[in-house]
Write a structure and sequence with these properties.
PCD_sf; Gyrase A, domain 2; 41% helix; globular; 4-alpha-hydroxytetrahydrobiopterin dehydratase activity; Putative pterin-4-alpha-carbinolamine dehydratase; alpha+beta; 4-stranded antiparallel β-sheet; Pterin_deHydtase
């Protein structure tokens, strides 16, 4: 998958398909609340497997049952299709852990 930076219009289109995500500068962020602390850790594990397979790793903050994922392609200096793809994958996984 491409690590070329997305244009502003491509970012706007992507954000429109990710209603639970917030864009701040060159980062997409979403905070989820898991059903329990253990469920949250299991969600992090599931995302970690996807991230490792894609060689694209999010910043993750865990606060009890609240997990915040921050996506940005640091090597490219901003948002790429890798970030959008991983955001959609996190959205797909999230309901299993709430």
């Amino acid at each position: 998958m491409s690590t070329e930076l997305l244009t502003e219009s491509e970012i706007a289109e992507a954000v429109a398909t990710l209603p639970d995500w917030t864009r701040t500068g060159s980062t997409l962020t979403r905070t989820l609340e898991a059903g329990s602390f253990l469920s949250g850790i299991e969600l992090v594990g599931a995302v970690a497997e996807l991230a490792e397979a894609a060689d694209h790793h999010p910043d993750i903050d865990i606060r009890w049952r609240k997990i915040t994922f921050a996506l940005s392609t640091h090597s490219a200096g901003g948002l790429t299709r890798l970030d959008v793809s991983l955001a959609h994958e996190i959205d797909r996984l999230a309901p299993r852990f709430s």
